[in-house]
Q: What sequence folds into this?
């Protein structure tokens, strides 16, 4: 059974960049709904298999992908942020951004464009590709669509309206700009280090 993870900080800790009201609703209501949805779908899958209703399994597997995607995405998202975040990365991230994105400013510009050009709901994601041994930036539609199998999430930005609308209304660019002030580069760097050695655990 999946469970809602505790945050490493209070709901008010990311203010003024992300309001306490948004944090509480986002974590305790929206994320919890994905956890509940994943567990409910697992029960339904078990029932379908037990009754021989295999015609229902295809839809249930899609439901599980959606809810479990929401659970995984948010679990990474919370860890990617810190009240002590912001600024520019150094060390392995600085080197990686130079090698694959022509520097941090270019990486940030591409990430911003990916986030702001999402049609509908989704995520902007920096992920590590273990096959190519390099990072990529992706648009993730909804919670689970348009991401190649095997990609390891390093940095995720939630672009669903529930992540920003109460504070930033429809001005998504202001939300994205504010979010950079809470990005925890220590967490992202740790994920990259572990991804390149094959030792990454999702909630590390």
A:
């Amino acid at each position: 059974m999946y469970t809602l993870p505790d945050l490493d900080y209070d709901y008010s800790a990311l203010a003024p960049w992300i309001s306490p009201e948004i944090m509480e609703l986002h974590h305790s209501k929206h994320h919890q709904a994905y956890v509940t949805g994943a567990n409910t779908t697992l029960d339904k899958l078990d029932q379908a298999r037990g009754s021989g209703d295999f015609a229902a399994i295809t839809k249930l597997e899609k439901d599980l992908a959606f809810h479990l995607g929401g659970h995984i995405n948010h679990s990474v998202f919370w860890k990617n942020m810190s009240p002590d975040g912001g600024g520019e990365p150094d060390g392995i991230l600085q080197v990686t951004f130079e090698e694959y994105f022509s520097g941090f400013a270019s990486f940030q510009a591409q990430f911003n464009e990916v986030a702001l050009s999402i049609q509908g709901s989704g995520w902007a994601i920096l992920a590590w590709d273990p096959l190519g041994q390099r990072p990529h930036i992706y648009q993730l539609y909804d919670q689970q669509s348009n991401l190649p199998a095997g990609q390891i999430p390093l940095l995720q930005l939630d672009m669903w309206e529930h992540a920003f609308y109460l504070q930033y209304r429809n001005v998504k660019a202001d939300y994205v700009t504010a979010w950079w002030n809470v990005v925890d580069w220590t967490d992202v760097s740790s994920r990259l280090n572990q991804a390149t050695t094959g030792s990454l655990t999702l909630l590390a």
